[in-house]
Amino acid sequence: MEFVDALTGFRVDGRRPNEVTPTFPFPTAPPRVTQSHSVLLLDFAQMRQLKGEVGVVARADGSALFEMGNTRVIAAVYGPREVQNKGQQVNSKEALVRCEYRMAEFSTGDRRRKPKGDRRSTEISLVIRQTMEASILTHLMPRSQIDIFVQVLQADGGTRSACINAATLALADAGIPMRDIVTSCSAGYLCSTPLLDLNYVEDSAGGPDVTVGILAKMDKVTLLQMDAKLPMDTFENVMELAIEGCKAIATYIRETRKINGLNMLKIASHKWITHRVKGLLVEDEWLCPVQWTGNS
Amino acid sequence: MRDLHLSLNQTQRVRLEAALHELQSLAPAAASAAAVTVADTIPVNQEDNILKGHGTSDQDGEVVATLCGVVERVNKLVYVRTLRARYKPEVGDIIVGRVIEIAPKRWRLEINFSQDAVLMLSSMNLPDGIQRRRTAVDELNMRSIFEENDVICAEVRGFQHDGSLHLQARSEKYGKLERGQLLTVPPYLVKRKKQHFHHLAQYDVDLILGCNGFIWVGEHVVVGEKTKTTEYQQKSSDDAENFTPLETRKHICRLANAVRVLSALGFTLTVELIIETAEASVSSNVEVNNMLGAEFYVQTAEREAKRRADLLRKKNGAR
Amino acid sequence: MVGLSEGEKHFIRGGISQDIRTDGRRRLQFRALSVETGVIPQANGSARVRLGATEIIASVKAELGKPSILHPDKGKISIFVDCSPTAEPTFEGRGSEELSTELSVALQRCLLGGKSGAGAAIDLSSLIVVEGKVCWDLYIDGLVVSSDGNLLDALAAAIKVALSDTGIPKVNVSLSAASDEEPEVDVSDEEFLQFDTSSVPVIVTLTKVGRRYIVDATSEEESQMSSAVSVSVNRNGQVCGLTKRGGAGLDPSVIFDMISVAKHVSEQFIAHLDSKISEAEAAAE
């Protein structure tokens, strides 16, 4: 299977393997081509198209929707609130962080009935919890509990990374103090080329898959997972590529938060007809960031 | 914290956008304050002994933001203010809370804070009004004063050394709230003012703006009748005579919907604004339930833009 | 769900009896409904429906399978509901299992008809490709993203919208197959058959509080109910399914009355939903 076309150098969905230049604002391009269509020349970032949006679940303290290509994930944060189950509270000087990862039954290509709490979900829940715990300043909220719930609506490779990015946005939306923005991205190695941000087709090709999560500004790695095998020097290249991807996502997140915070009405072209308006309006001494998102 | 989900047609979208633009442009010049995200460095002058407030931390000698929001500077204090966050209590705040649990000699209340607040039995007036030491009988009769899920109005007394928040409800105006509805709005929309209890005589309605974002709209209860709780409970059956009168109920619903619309738009809640919105709905002949619709939403935004523009013009004219 | 104090409950009951509920609605009025289609591109059909603050995402996936031996001329449909913990913290882990099962069973009862397949909302024989050998299996999944009461009505509406958005690919069967061999099927990527959803019913849940019934209860009002009857009615006014929940016993005459009220309310609701569906489809193009 030609994951990287020998002549043109493009991947199955038309991206280049290793440029990392996300254009901003992201163009609203048509969806990526799948392998049944011929490869088109799409001239922009070879990370998949990113989209992040906050405030999708009204009831939660903070929530976010994050998309990486066709992978779509909702994260909701409830907290900090009183600890519900005192037995779980280990350290009373810090907040208790809990996380649950769930996939919708229609999220994968072949619909499979998966029981709750299967091994993969439990493992990913644990991974997300540990990654976010490293960044949340838990000592500022003793004797309280922060719940992070992540629901996958559509899975097309890179769900772990999308979940972590969505959780970061949701925590920021909830006003929970954090050390730094945590972003995550995956990279692989197929046809002797390191590839950034694998989709499902590339992921199931059997090549190695490296997932990296970093604290963006402090430039520290908090999550590193790999399966299959890679020679050491190739591994370094692939990991570098993944880290670059993470930094690009961090830039994107920062820009969207800044835009939301700086009185710009973001009127995206919408598929969702409804509008959710959220913002403060000006009183004499208070600032009014107005953020009006047409969900798209 | 609820946002209204509305379908706006094209003209309504355009009108709303125009109104919001106007409101932004009316912002004072200080609106250019810096917005930061997590881990952004806040520019400070290192020689002034800057006090690092909420949302900041010290990393390698630099002041770094830990929240996403706007940087505020007040004299030597630098802090970051977020848009949405849980309630941050201050001593003397009037809050509305719901009883979660009855523990030995205290009630635990949920007040939209990171922990439950505690109302000690000794911080509460006894039903018979006598100031005396609480005995074991009083402790067993705690349920007759407040039960689980009751809505209570109280005042923040302070933080204890173990970090828990204590409330007090000694005055006559605090206590159980009945016959009405409780609304939840983001706490930043309720500013601390001199008065949080509002008796709207023209409607015969009590409006309590809790600083924690819980707003109570209910029938008016004369202060002093609040302590007669036991008799009240016996009377509350399903007889039609015991229900709130229809007129009062309509007013309560209108005010509640006004609060919902204003909080969805993100306007700071003041009594005057709430009353104005409710009256505007009456004068425009909007049905009570249509107040949550798209048309009234857009109209409220336009009205507020106009009001602030007029205010600014008057201020500038007076100078 | 948060509990309610006695005073608040009294207020809600009073509102229902006086025909002006806490948000100003009348007893038989629905909340604002908003509908959107095509939200899950990977599925054959999908919809996102908001009824007030309750939000549901429904998806329909079609896969080729073998029909059951008892009904070789019918396809298969299965309905599952999942409650996401993003809606309620109490839904995490196994907390939502009971509710999900209850909702799934109620929907199956209303939409799938009896054991023989009679009375199903969708004509199962239209799902057959090769009789006895190949048929379409439809998997309908509902996900509760945000919950504020009246989940059943919202789920049924979402399923109806998702089905109206569903396109089943055209299948070309190679005619040369012998009768005992597996026939070759060629699933077309280009052509789709739209579903005929005119006979798909909607569900109207009537919640009895005191002596009155209300439609589209919020979660606060649901906590006050003595019993609830969910009636599934289709466009012709025929009752397709019935579920009663809640412990209080009901007089049979009361149940008949509730059914007729549900039929009356469902007419407007179906018309409203249909107009929203055509709006959404027009917007999608």
Automatic annotation (TrEMBL), chain A:
UniProt keyword Cytoplasm, yes or no: yes
A GO molecular function held by the record: RNA binding
Location in the cell: Cytoplasm; Nucleus, Nucleolus
Organism (species): Panicum miliaceum (Proso millet)
Family (UniProt): Belongs to the RNase PH family.
InterPro entries, per the entry: ExoRNase_PH_dom1, ExoRNase_PH_dom2, ExoRNase_PH_dom2_sf, PNPase/RNase_PH_dom_sf, Ribosomal_Su5_D2-typ_SF, RNase_PH
Entry GO CC: cytoplasmic exosome (RNase complex); nuclear exosome (RNase complex); nucleolus
Protein name, entry field: Exosome complex component RRP41-like
Automatic annotation (TrEMBL), chain B:
SUPFAM superfamilies attached to this UniProt entry: Eukaryotic type KH-domain (KH-domain type I), Nucleic acid-binding proteins, Ribosomal L27 protein-like
GO cellular component: cytoplasmic exosome (RNase complex); nuclear exosome (RNase complex)
UniProt cross-references to InterPro entries, sorted A to Z: Exosome_RNA_bind1/RRP40/RRP4 (IPR026699), KH_dom_type_1 (IPR004088), KH_dom_type_1_sf (IPR036612), NA-bd_OB-fold (IPR012340), S1_domain (IPR003029), S1_RRP4 (IPR048565)
Keywords annotated in UniProt: Exosome, Nucleus, RNA-binding, rRNA processing
Main localization (coarse): nucleus
Record keyword Transport present: no
One Pfam short name: KH_6
Keyword match Nucleus: yes
Alphabetical GO biological process terms: CUT catabolic process; exonucleolytic trimming to generate mature 3'-end of 5.8S rRNA from tricistronic rRNA transcript (SSU-rRNA, 5.8S rRNA, LSU-rRNA); nuclear polyadenylation-dependent rRNA catabolic process; poly(A)-dependent snoRNA 3'-end processing; TRAMP-dependent tRNA surveillance pathway; U4 snRNA 3'-end processing
Subcellular location(s) of the protein: Nucleus
Transmembrane segments: none
Stretches assigned to the S1 motif domain: 90-170
GO molecular function terms attached to this record: RNA binding
Family membership noted in the UniProt record: Belongs to the RRP4 family.
Protein name per the record: Exosome complex component rrp4
The organism of origin for this protein: Panicum miliaceum
The organism's taxonomic lineage, starting at the top: Eukaryota, Viridiplantae, Streptophyta, Embryophyta, Tracheophyta
Automatic annotation (TrEMBL), chain C:
Origin superkingdom: Eukaryota
CDD domains in the cross-refs: RNase_PH_RRP42
Domain Exoribonuclease phosphorolytic: residue ranges: 29-169, 200-263
GO cellular component, one term: nucleolus
Location within or outside the cell: Cytoplasm; Nucleus, Nucleolus
A Pfam family annotated for this UniProt entry: RNase_PH
InterPro entries for this protein: ExoRNase_PH_dom1, ExoRNase_PH_dom2, ExoRNase_PH_dom2_sf, Exosome_comp_Rrp42_subfam, PNPase/RNase_PH_dom_sf, Ribosomal_Su5_D2-typ_SF
GO BP of this protein: exonucleolytic trimming to generate mature 3'-end of 5.8S rRNA from tricistronic rRNA transcript (SSU-rRNA, 5.8S rRNA, LSU-rRNA); nuclear mRNA surveillance; nuclear polyadenylation-dependent rRNA catabolic process; rRNA catabolic process; TRAMP-dependent tRNA surveillance pathway; U1 snRNA 3'-end processing; U4 snRNA 3'-end processing; U5 snRNA 3'-end processing
Alphabetically ordered keywords of this record: Cytoplasm, Exosome
Cytoplasm keyword on record: yes
Gene3D superfamilies the UniProt entry points to: GHMP Kinase, N-terminal domain
Molecular function in Gene Ontology: mRNA 3'-UTR AU-rich region binding
Family: Belongs to the RNase PH family.
Name of the molecule in the record: Ribosomal RNA-processing protein 42
Originating species: Panicum miliaceum
